[in-house]
Specification:
Blueprint (H helix, E strand, L loop, with lengths): L1 E8 L5 E4 L8 H19 L8 E6 L2 E7 L4 E8 L4 H19 L16 H10 L6 H8 L9 E4 H5 L1 H58 L1
Parallel strand pairs: 3-6
Antiparallel strand pairs: 1-2, 1-5, 3-4, 4-5
Length: 221
């Protein structure tokens, strides 16, 4: 299943369009950061080293796939590991074909990020088509020219971004989690005290009232 879709300009990593998915899984924010780091890495090596036309990057339980077109635009998606590579590249090829037709001549001149965000409508339409690998049409895609999948370069996320960057990212995430855990502990302690007060307050009021009545009787009678 396709989880993320991002389109960027190769020479500077400028994001051009993105799939505005409703999936709000917190872990995907980290993968989106990794995708942008990959774009930055590619642009830092450009133009002396141009990206391979098709690359798959192993990122744990997910896989990044990307293709580049003649306009030096990079189309990237993140899929579950078991999702067929053939379908992932079929999906990206469709995006590249439509995006190139609509915006190919404008890519070099844009200066603001997400200048073609309206392309999301086509991304969502294409994503639905490739959602289930078991549909008849997708089964036909899988059976056609299956041998070409073996020619795709496969890399590991640690090799692409560098071990240092990966460790820095892990440290950053660890610090965030530690901060969140401390805040959660403080909130939990406060809630615990509030619960105790709610539980015993009626008894405190009753006992206090009885003691006050007894005190008044002993004092004035």
């Amino acid at each position: 299943m396709v989880k993320l879709t991002l389109i960027a300009r190769v020479r500077d990593g400028l994001p051009l369009a993105e799939g505005l998915d409703n999936d709000r899984e917190s872990e995907l924010f980290a993968y989106k950061s990794q995708a942008k780091a990959i774009f930055k890495k590619i642009s830092s090596q450009y133009p002396s080293t141009k990206p391979a036309p098709r690359v798959s990057i192993d990122a744990g339980k997910y896989v990044f796939h990307y293709v580049t077109d003649a306009n030096d635009v990079i189309y990237m998606t993140l899929t579950e590991k078991q999702y067929p590579k053939k379908l992932a590249y079929g999906y990206l090829d469709e995006l590249a074909k439509e995006f190139g037709t609509l915006y190919g001549a404008q890519v070099d001149s844009v200066t603001r990020p997400y200048a073609f965000i309206k392309f999301d409508s086509f991304i969502q339409k294409s994503k639905k088509v490739y959602l289930d690998s078991r549909t008849q049409k997708n089964m036909e895609r899988l059976n056609a020219d299956l041998a070409e999948v073996h020619q795709i370069m496969t890399q590991n996320i640690a090799d692409v971004l560098g071990q240092g960057q990966k460790l820095d990212r892990m440290t950053e995430m660890s610090n965030v989690l530690s901060h969140d855990a401390k805040q959660l502990a403080v909130k939990a302690k406060g809630l615990y005290h509030q619960a105790l007060i709610k539980q015993y307050l009626p008894w405190i009021v009753i006992i206090g009232t009885i003691l006050l009545v007894l005190f008044i009787r002993m004092t004035f009678y």
